[in-house]
Design a protein that fits this description.
Elements lengths: L3 E6 L2 E6 L10 E2 L7 H6 L8 E5 L3 H11 L1 E12 L4 E6 L2 E3 L2 E3 L6 H13 L5 E15 L2 E14 L13 E7 L5 H4 L4 H7 L4
Parallel strand pairs: 1-9, 2-4, 3-4, 5-10
Antiparallel strand pairs: 1-2, 5-8, 6-7, 6-11, 9-10
Length: 201
């Protein structure tokens, strides 16, 4: 499988890859020679396109270079399926999301994912499965660039539990939704969450 990194920057996306993904239609190619991510970030608003493609023979090397220039935060979360074939979603700061949060010092990714789901939704997870994917999101915090790497895991839980949103984390709703109702999520969520939802569940 060809190497590929989807890096989300607000509503825009940088794809670092060896070959152009088939699904990409409208995009702007970025030259790999002399590429400086910080300059790219601060000139994003000057570009009309929302998708940018950086083609290179070694995407992992380019991604590693980006990581060395900005602060990296590790997070983990869960894509939780119920015994009633529904999936757990939260509404945080007005957007539909999946429960996740930052790793605590010396905490394993799986442990963090489980803890965050249970804390943010007030439920008990029955089983923790394999990792689905990683998503990458870059934003600016106090004038500094931050890369958040989120690790997503499959989980299972019993639906007949009281759902308690963690209000102090900006969560106002927790709901179990069947696939037939995912449209309400997809029209009001983040691009990185859409990437997680695209995996077979």
């Amino acid at each position: 499988m060809a190497q590929k990194y989807n890096i989300y920057i607000n509503e825009k996306k940088l794809i670092i890859c060896t070959q152009l993904p088939k699904y990409v239609q409208s995009y702007q190619v970025i030259e790999v020679e002399g590429f400086d991510f910080e300059i790219f970030f601060h000139t994003l608003n000057n570009h009309q396109h929302t998708t940018f493609v950086l083609l290179c023979p070694n995407p992992k090397f380019i991604f590693s270079k980006i990581k060395t220039t900005i602060k990296v935060i590790e997070a983990a979360g869960g894509f939780v399926k119920s015994d009633e074939d529904k999936y757990l979603f939260i509404k945080r700061n007005g957007y539909w999301d999946l429960p996740k949060g930052k790793l605590e010092p010396n905490e394993k990714k799986k442990q963090a994912a489980l803890r965050e789901v249970e804390e943010e939704c007030g439920i008990t997870v029955e089983s923790l499965g394999k990792k689905i994917t990683k998503t990458y999101h870059i934003y600016e915090l106090k004038g500094k660039l931050v890369l958040k790497i989120s690790h997503w895991y499959r989980m299972k839980a019993i639906a007949n539990q009281a759902l308690v949103p963690q209000i102090e984390e900006g969560i106002t709703e927790v709901q179990w939704l069947p696939k037939s109702k995912w449209d309400i999520v997809k029209t009001n969520t983040y691009p990185s969450i859409l990437e997680v939802l695209a995996y077979k569940v």
